[in-house]
Design brief:
With 162 residues, the chain is an alpha+beta fold. Helix content is 41%, strand content 31%. It is built from 5 helices and 7 strands; from the N terminus they run H-H-E-H-E-E-H-H-E-E-E-E. Strands 1, 2, 3, 4, 5, 6 and 7 form a 7-stranded antiparallel sheet that branches. A hairpin with a 2-residue loop joins strand 6 and strand 7. Helix 2 packs across helix 5 (88-113) and helix 4 (68-79) packs across helix 5.
């Protein structure tokens, strides 16, 4: 586990996330601290969670948490459509899954290239306004927050040796 603990997940995830949003969505995300993210009070709104899991020499879960409103904005930018033209199930969920897959895929590639070969699952999506996610049995959990205008996206990573 010590080698896994030495990996700078924040750097990997921050670079992948900001690059993907900048290149694919023309959105410049900023890394924000926990206090600012919590003051956003996004947990009281309808949220969408995109999730992928890792299996292999490293096991874990990668999750992004965003509000429904931010998800529509992201989908609108990615698909070059007006928000009122988007379907939640067909467009927004697909885009959240794709963003999860791109960021999580970058992390998977880094891990695999650095002695932790692993595979990832297809993305899964959960949405609603009164739920929580829980991942148990992992040695390391990291949380990062990214802001765009008045929106916050939270990324959580749970990992352990496989």
């Amino acid at each position: 586990m010590s080698e896994l603990n030495a990996i700078n997940l924040k750097e990997i995830v921050t670079e992948a996330t900001t690059d993907i949003f900048n290149v694919m969505l023309s959105m410049e995300l900023e890394v924000i601290d926990d206090e600012l993210a919590e003051s956003n009070e996004q947990n009281k709104e309808s949220s969408i969670v995109g999730s992928i899991d890792f299996t292999g020499n490293v096991m874990g879960s990668f999750k992004i948490f965003i509000t429904k409103d931010f998800a529509f904005l992201i989908a609108s930018n990615m698909l070059l459509m007006e928000q009122d033209e988007l379907s939640m199930e067909e467009d927004v969920y697909d885009v959240v899954g794709e963003i999860s897959n791109m960021i999580g895929g970058n992390l998977k590639t880094f891990l695999s290239n650095n002695g932790f070969p692993c595979n990832i699952t297809v993305p899964s999506i959960v949405s609603g306004s009164d739920f929580r996610t829980q991942v148990m049995g992992y040695n390391r959990m990291e949380t990062y927050h990214f802001g765009y205008e008045n929106n916050v996206m939270t990324v959580k990573i749970f990992i352990k040796n496989g």
